[in-house]
Amino acid sequence: MDLTIRGNQDAGVQVSAKHYVGNEQETQRSNSVHDGTPVEGISSNIDDRAMHELYVWPFAHAVRAGAASVMCSYNRLNFTYACENSRALNEILKQELGFEGYVVSDWFATHSGAKAITAGLDMNMPGPIDQTDFSRSYFGDNVTAAVKDGSVSESRLNDMVRRILTPYFYLGQDKDYPSVDPSTSAVMAKTYNAYWPINPQGRDVRGDHARFIRQKAAEATVLLKNTNSILPLKAPVPSVIGVFGNDAADLTQGLVYDGPQSENPDFGYDIGTLVIGGGSGGGRNSYIVSPLEAIKARARENNFRVQYILDNAVLARNDFSGIYPTPDVCLVFLKTWAREGVDRLSFEADYNSTEVVNNVAGQCNQTVVITHSGGINTMPWANNPNVTAILAAHYPGQETGNSIADVIFGDVNPSGRLPYTIAKKGEDYNTGLLNLTGPSRTDSSAWKVDFEEGLFIDYRYFEEKDIEPRYEFGYGLSYTTFALSKKASLSTKKLNIPQLPPKSTHSAPGGNPALWKEVIGATTSVKNTGSISGATVVQLYLAFPQESVPTGTPKRVLRGFEKVSLRAGESKVVRFPLTRRDLSYWDVVAQEWRVPRGEFTVHIGFSSRDLPQEVGFQVAG
């Protein structure tokens, strides 16, 4: 789920939570035509418990935080399009979660008029039926006709208007609100290769964006390996530093790449660093500072030599004839292209990444690998003894070179943590991509994914199946060290929580207010035991009493995390409030949240597999 903010810092903003719900792959995400046959979008078939405890869970937080709109997704959900799924929109989102804003479709994700409206869709974007026919719409005049013939009630129409206009007036967007950026239409036309007669200059809203993003991208870098503390490169800086890989280079094909508009993913542009993904997650940078550019600037300041090869094809054939002398430290930059509308087909980074790393490491016994990727990369070279450090920098934006140089040379202590598990091999993951071929490709009923894993995603699955990951969820190193106090404490050791009445109807934004009430607090203390300042992320995982929860409950679930910045030798107290909701599971029969009876265990530490503190409490029957 992501949150899109519309507006600016000087006026009220509208936050849209998307995509609701089940948009777990891009392939066949919406209706299309195969071999001349219309085929419906893929159906994400999710059971009621997983829907509540996993896929709707973050939307409850968004609604409670005041999201003005929720954008429904392209896919079908249990064989009904998400934008016309009454169970998801009316029953769960608007009634159960008490959502008072409007539901908006993603672009061209609307497949009906009256049906979608009665199912809970309030706004159709952008209006026309598809990108090739702007003369027809499921809404527009059809809404008027539907009200007249009774297929849409007048009260439902009023509800749509009320939901759309309430946040508009509440946020003051009717008074002195900034106009639409004059370059918007031209940018959209350029993105879709359409003619636009004028090319207006965009409004400059950057402010101190460059400084901000440079700092945040550096801090968010995840340090995965740092043998013998090779990083940071401190004075005296090695006399020769090698820079390798096409991701280190300046861009050669312009600052924007969005890939072909097809279902076959490519690898993005060959030569040039990758700072942002494509599709709706893309953007147009003012400039890009490449890693090589930033390292050259450091070389001028610190008087070291820089040797480099930026062509991965040359590196893959193990040709280092252009390098002399052999570098003392080698920096290898890898990238993984990703965009909306298509799915990656490999967990490894692109452009012969494994051959590139192993060949560079064969030349250099101090090899540092930096990845730029929108998600998981398996790293078959991670245990190569000459790969002494690994940094996952994800998509850092226009200051990418400066950000990674700040980390490599120690101006910034990285404090990012993995939001996913990195497996040793792709086969260790329990979910895959569905891409049909042959006759089944034209069968709409075959385009379905049954979410049989239930609640066992990512770290929960690895723990349940006792699979050792390469790097676990929540993992990340630092240039300093941290330690927790010997014991964690709880605000109480015994709770007596009455169950909610079945199908309780009392709801406010986010759901029944009783679910958000704190019922217990856990407290610990963390200390910076190293010699420099840094930040760590203290994490709390909760284990339910297995004897009194339904089958399919994970051993532990993340229920809190707190980033703490500490000077060398400094300690701080960290407190985690746990709500009734945190202690509950979804009872599919009663259609209500239930708190199980028995012994809960609180685990506190620095990752899903580094949890040195453990303390229990009892919920009485």
How would you characterize the overall build of this protein?
The chain is of the alpha/beta class and 621 residues long. Helix content is 20%, strand content 24%. The protein contains 13 helices and 29 strands. It has a six-stranded mixed beta sheet, sandwiched between helices. A five-stranded mixed beta sheet has the order 21-29-28-23-24, with no helix packed on it. Strands 1-2-6-9 form a four-stranded mixed beta sheet. Helix 8 crosses helix 12 (400-408) and helix 9 packs across helix 12 (400-408). The protein starts with a strand and ends with a strand. The model is unreliable at 1-11 (pLDDT under 50).
Question: What are its keywords?
Answer:
disordered N terminus, six-stranded mixed β-sheet, 621 residues, alpha/beta, globular
Q: Describe the sheet with the most strands.
A: 6 strands, mixed
Total strand segments:
29
Radius of gyration: 26 Å
Give the averaged pLDDT, no decimals.
93
Shape descriptor: globular
Distance between the termini: 36 Å
SS content category: alpha/beta
